[in-house]
Amino acid sequence: MIAYRQSSDRYLPARHQPALVLDYACSRELDREGTQPLRGTGLTGWDMPSADCMLTAAEYLQLLANVLRALDSPDSSFMLGQQMLPGHYGALSHALLQAQNLRQALSILCAGHARLCPLLTPRLIEEGGLAVLYWTDSFGAPSQLPALVEMHMTAVTAMCRWLSGERLPWRYCLNRSTPAHVEQHEVHLGSELRFHCHLDAMLIDPAWLDRPWPRGNAMAASVALQGVAAEAGDQALTPSLLTALYDHLLENIRLRPTLEGSAAAFGVSPATLKRHLARHGSHYQAELDQVRAHVAMQLFQMRGYDNEAVAHYLGFHDAANFRRSFKRWTGLVPSLLRAVPP
């Protein structure tokens, strides 16, 4: 049975990312006498939370929304990202600090995402002469996705620059319209930006994945990874419902997964799974369509498949039916997507 977290589960240590948000708000001289930034967050004051204080994902999202709204500054999400990784989150953070190269660092990030970056889930794929780190929503916060993506992409960019000792040549795809001002994106991410994409992703030449990092320490990395392995049974590493469902659908995408089959894999009834997804602002068909769209884009741009091959891979009866579905998912016909270089 697949284990998962819901947005109402109280499991996020307030001393981790939430404390960083509080500290940043204070550094920007946000009024600590006011209660509005703490409303709905589960926090009762601005001091360092106690070691046993746990928040839900919904409360952490509310804290971010409150602080970003109160600061009302275009650089806030980027500045928060600068402080986010490697963090001080136990063996996972220590393993990141000792990572020997980009591949190892990204592997640790993806494996430990539930603790290192609980609000968005990173996934790494390498194919067709391209390495892609892409992000999906973990707890259903579509209105906050632009800020969350800015925060997380900045976190990875800054961490890699620090650990590698150089600025890596990332390219960025953002699933949003071009903002009125892109200066903050260029300062914190660089000039290789593409908006109006259908995926939030960071792209890099795979040659950079195994390039040794000067801060890497093989012995220390080995010890830290053993510590990560010891934490594997820690419930804090359990993924969110949306993340677990995405992974399940991705693994079974060629088998045409159904609501009934997926619910059985999660050990709940179809009605219960539907209710859980509704609490996250989603539904089963939307989650399935998202995975299908992502797989189709990968097949088009990383394997060079044509319509017929993608349709067959995803279990469609014919290419015409697939084309109609793809346009519904993305707003584009496949030929337009194939014309855009990865």
Detailed description of the structure:
The protein has 342 residues and is of the alpha+beta class. The chain has three domains: 1-72, no CATH class; 77-238, no CATH class; 241-338, Orthogonal Bundle (Arc Repressor Mutant, subunit A). Helix content is 49%, strand content 10%. It is built from 16 helices and seven strands. The chain has helices at 17-27, 57-71, 76-84, 91-97, 102-111, 113-116, 145-164, 183-188, 218-230, 241-251, 259-265, 270-279, 284-302, 307-313, 319-330, 334-338, and strands spanning 10-13, 54-56, 120-127, 130-137, 171-173, 193-194, 200-204. Strands 3-4-7-5-6 form a five-stranded mixed β-sheet. A two-stranded antiparallel ribbon has the order 1-2. Helix 1 packs parallel to helix 2 and helix 4 packs antiparallel against helix 5. The longest helix is centred in the middle third of the chain and has 20 residues, at 145-164. It is globular and about 60 Å long. The two termini are 36 Å apart.
Task: Going across the biggest sheet, name each strand in turn.
Answer: 3-4-7-5-6
Radius of gyration: 20 Å
Would you tell me the structural class of the helices and strands?
A: alpha+beta
Number of domains: 3
Q: Characterize the largest beta sheet: strand count, sense, and whether it forms a barrel.
A: 5 strands, mixed
- With helices defined by DSSP (H or I, 4 residues minimum), what is the helix count? 16
The N- and C-terminal alpha carbons lie at a distance of 36 Å
| Residues in helix, % | 40-55%
Compute the average pLDDT: 91
Summarize the helix and strand pattern as letters.
EHEHHHHHEEHEHEEHHHHHHHH
β-strand number: 7
Strand content: 5-15%
* Inertia-based shape: globular
